[in-house]
Amino acid sequence: MTPELLVGCDFGAGLRAGDQAKKTVAVEATRHAPGVYRVEPSGRNTRLVDPSTHPVAWMRRRHGWTTPEITESLRDDGEISVAAFDCPFGVPCGLLTDPDFAAAVGADRFDSRERFVEHVVGRLPLRFDGPGAGGVMDGLRQFEGWKQSRFWLPRATDAALRAAPPLKNVPPNVFNMTVAGVVMLARLQAAGYRHAVTVDAPGHARSVVETYAAAVARAVGASRKATPAEVIALSLAYLARRGVELTVAEPVRQFVTDYRSAGDDPDGRDAFLCLVAAIAFREGFAEAVTGGASPAAVAEEGVVIVPRA
């Protein structure tokens, strides 16, 4: 059997490198056979249990990834079959066709996702203005014009899931990760990944999936007040009912249970939920939440994919 890796990532794109490397957490599983997965304290999970192994000095105090780093890591790994991100990968069609939206960042018109992506990619190089944790992401401030509240419109998939509009900037993380996520996705697509907007069986073709941790939690039966430990247990039970065996090594389980990047933000738990969505997609029991949008609109806006409840 060809080796397969699946990754779930709770994405975050703070302005500074150090903030990104706290927020963007990835949990990796190996698919040993159809329906058999192992999450080991190795590979990308090594930094979850022992971040001191990272070769960059300031990163040895962080468990996560910067946006350029996770993009490069996934882009160059041919063993990955599914990478699922809690990150909006698009904006509403209504914004794409709004001339004021384009003018707010110095563009003439977009009218399509393709031209929107081209504009963002050409102005956001996914690099920092310095090598340390305080380095600021170059180009991110060029999109300040999109922070006007009139552009805080949900896609159809966001409305159906009660998710935040992709350009909402209060707090700023959703806005930043939408813009940076557009560039990350474009680079992964250039490397051969497909952006999944349906749940057609992908086989071993590399796929990038947009998911939403809160919706994954609902699908596995977790309430809003469920602890990370309860979410893990419910997720494993959900998968088992569908014939999937997922074994999580204790050090990684402990990280998922305990880790919070700031305050009470359970990024370890959310990354694990993204992994559950990746497994559901790979094994054929996921659904694309379109919110009633047409296939043509979904192709432009993107769609959230979650385990079938």
Distance between the termini: 29 Å
Order of the strands making up the biggest sheet: 5-6-4-1-2-3-7
The fraction of residues assigned to DSSP E strands is: 5-15%
Largest sheet: 7 strands, mixed
Number of β-strand runs: 9
Overall pLDDT level? 95
State the gist of this model.
With 309 residues, the chain is an alpha/beta fold. The chain contains 13 helices and nine strands.
Describe the structure.
The protein is α/β, with parallel strands linked by helices and 309 residues long. The protein has helices spanning 17-23, 46-49, 67-75, 93-96, 99-103, 113-123, 156-161, 173-190, 213-219, 228-241, 250-258, 267-283, 295-301, and strands spanning 4-10, 25-33, 36-39, 80-85, 194-195, 207-210, 245-248, 286-289, 304-307. The protein has one domain (4-307). The protein is built from 13 helices and nine strands. The strands form two sheets. A seven-stranded mixed sheet has the order 5-6-4-1-2-3-7. Strands 8-9 form a two-stranded antiparallel ribbon. A hairpin with a 2-residue loop joins strand 2 and strand 3. The longest helix is centred in the middle third of the chain and has 18 residues, at 173-190. It is globular, with a radius of gyration of 18 Å. The two termini are 29 Å apart.
